[in-house]
Amino acid sequence: MKLERIFKNIVALNFLSILYLIGLGFFEAEASIELPETDLLWPLLIYLLLLPITLYFLYTFKPIGKKLFLPLVLISSLISIGLPLEYFQIDSVDQYLVEYIAAAADGAILLMLYFTDIKKKFI
To answer: Where in the sequence is the domain holding 117, given as residue range(s)?
Structure first.
């Protein structure tokens, strides 16, 4: 029971950090320079639409959440490798901290999904 609560808190933390980063991107996009076009914008948009849905499935222990989360983490890594360097401008310390927390939460979720008793909840 305690492990379930910890898992749900990590998923909620991940959701809130991603929501914060998306909101920060919208508010800072008006003041920033024009970013170059890239073919990865559509996959990035699809990723940003699927991530909250997948986190909801994980939060409610739906088996589809476990099946979707690992591919989404891998896709996000590939997208971040392929994006131009102009997309990685960190303007403040809190943005860096929240990105670090989101990445750590991704790792913690993956660890709990595949190496703890939480994996039995997704069968």
So the answer is: 2-122
